[in-house]
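REQUEST FORM: STRUCTURE PREDICTION
Request ID: SP-0412
Submitted by: Lab K.M.
Chain count: 1
Length (residues): 458
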Amino acid sequence: MASTYDFDLITIGGGSGGVRASRIAASHGAKVAVVEEDRLGGTCVLRGCVPKKLLVYGASFASDFADAAGFGWQVSAPVHDWPALIKAKNDELDRLAGIYRGMMDKAGVTVIEGRGVITGAHEVTVNGKVWTAERILIAVGGWPHIPDIPGMRDHAISSNEALDLPQRPDQIVIQGSGYIAVEFAGIFASFGVETHLVFRASQPLRGFDPDMRQGLMTAMQDRGVILHAGTNITSVASDDDKTAVSLDNGNTLRVDCVMAATGRRPNITGLGLADQGVALTDNGAIKVQDDAQTSISTIYAIGDVTDRINLTPVAIAEGHRFADHFYGQNSHPQANRPMSYTNIPSAVFSQPPIASVGLTEDEAKQQGLSIKVYVESFRAMKNTLAGRNEKSIMKLIVNAEDDKVIGAHMLGFDAPEIIQGIAIAFKAGATKADFDATIGIHPTAAEEFVTMRTPRDG
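STATUS: Completed
RESULT:
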C-alpha cells in the first residue's frame, strides 16, 4: 500500500546522530529526509570535537618545541601563524562536510536545506513548505549558553566563535570549569596567550575523579594557565581597547577577549515543540522513553537535545539503534537491544588530557560499595630528559566483593587512547586478577595499569 506521507522519516538536524540514524534507516529501505539549516556535520564536525581537536594538535607543538632541547635538538624560537591555522582548520571542515553530504547522497537520503519547524504530529515546515512523514526524529543537539551576568552577553564569545577568531588574542578570560573551558584554556595558553580560567568550584571538571582534577590543576598552572578557583565574574565592560572583567574577590582583569564556557543547552528554540505538546524536562531537554519516543507518539529525539549523556558517540549509537529498531524489521542484532549508558568512556582533551571509564572513587563510595583503590603517580619517561616535572596519574577502583574493576582513570599523555582499550575490558567484565595476569608492554605508561599491586591505605 502506498504511503500517504512524503517520507517514512524526517530527521531534523544533520549532525552525527541525525546523519547516522538517517543513513541506517535508509539502508533498511526507509524513505528518509534530513533537514539542516547549516552544512551537514553538526556540532561535532563543525563547531566542536573535530575543530577543537585540530587546535589541540596545533597547540601541542608548543610543549614539543620546549621539550626538544632536552633531547639534543637545537630549536630556534618558534613563530606561530594563527590565521594559517584557522584557514587549514576551515579547509578540513569543508572537506568533512562534503563527505557527510556524499554519505547522504549515496544512502539515498534527501537533504532539505533550511530550518525545520514541527507544525504537526507528522509535519515539518521548511522555508514555508510543508513536508510530511510517518515519524519525525529530532537530533538538533545543543547550543552554547552565556550566563546572565551584566555585560557578559554583550562582550563574551562562546566556543563557536573561539574556533574562528581571525587573530590570536594577547589575553583571554575563560569562564567555566567543564570540558570546553579547560580544553580552550590549554589551547590558548600553549599559543602564548595570557590565559585566565575563572570558576566557582574548588577544582575544575565536576564529576571526574578528584585525583585527576587536582593533578590537572597543577599541570595547567605549570603550563601557564592562571587559575581563579572559587571565583565568580560579576560584570564585563569595555575599557578603552580592552575588556574589563570584574571578579567577586575585588580584582579586575583587563583582557582582549572573554569566553563563556559555562555549558550548553538543548537547541530547541523555534522548533515548535510547545505548540505540539512535546514534554520537556526542567532544563529544557526533550523527555524521551527508552526507544527515543517523546510524549507525542510520532515524534522522537536523540542526542544532546535529550540531555542524557552528551557525547557524540552516544548520539551516534542512539541514532543507529533507533534506525535498527524501527526500520530493521527486527533482523538486525541491535534491533531490540536496549541502549546501555553504563561504562561509557570519556575524555577531556586538556593539556595533559584526562580519560575515564566507570565509577569515580566518590561514586563508588556513594553507592555503598566496598572498594580497593590503586593509584600511581609518576613522571613519564619523556618528561625526564625534557626537564618537565609534570606527573601522570593512573587509578583503578576495584569492587572488593567480586574483584571486578569498576573504575579506571588517567591523567597524562595518550590517556584517551589508553582508556579506550581499557573500556573494552570493562564491557567484558574484567577483574583486577585479569589486569594482574596481563603482561605489560615495556616501556610504556599504559603498562602501569597492569602492574599496580598495592591498594592505597584508607
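NOTES: The mean pLDDT is 95.
Reviewed by: T.R.
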